[in-house]
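User: Before I run my own analysis I want an independent prediction to cross-check against. Here's the chain; please return only the structure tokens and, at the end, one sentence I can use as a sanity check.
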Amino acid sequence: MEFENGTSKAIGTQNLHIDGTLYNVTFTATDTVAEQVYGTFSGTFDFDPIQAHEAAIDAVNFELNKVGATGVGAEGSVAVPFFWVGFDSERGVDPQIEYVFVFETIQGEVQTGGNKIWVKIEGATDSELYNFGQGVWADFTPVPSPLPPGCWVVV
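Assistant: Structure tokens:
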């Protein structure tokens, strides 16, 4: 995980393994809308099948929790305790936004007080924010393979 100049604000991570593919992940500024990340409505999303966005969120949360990040955002922007990931719930019909927050926890349960932990909120999705909601997005970029398909490395 990469942090902004000695802060606990995560700005991204390199080579995050998600379902057999490596991704570089960057967090956007707080004034970013979905169209800037996924293109015009209804968007082109990073993961297929659509359930794969859950694995992506889990992988990012694992890394954020592992390093103790308390906020996310683009370099030079305000740190916020949440990020969004878009996904297509009905193949071009119903784009959705998944909310991910950092909560105060005690012994792994979401409560007030205690340590902070990044968690995905089940059922916290929204289809109306595609063109209107501004926030921090986790933007996933696949890392190109260093070798052409079918090549073997002998060690």
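Sanity check: The beta strands are 2-3, 9-18, 21-27, 71-72, 82-88, 95-106, 109-110, 115-126, 138-142.
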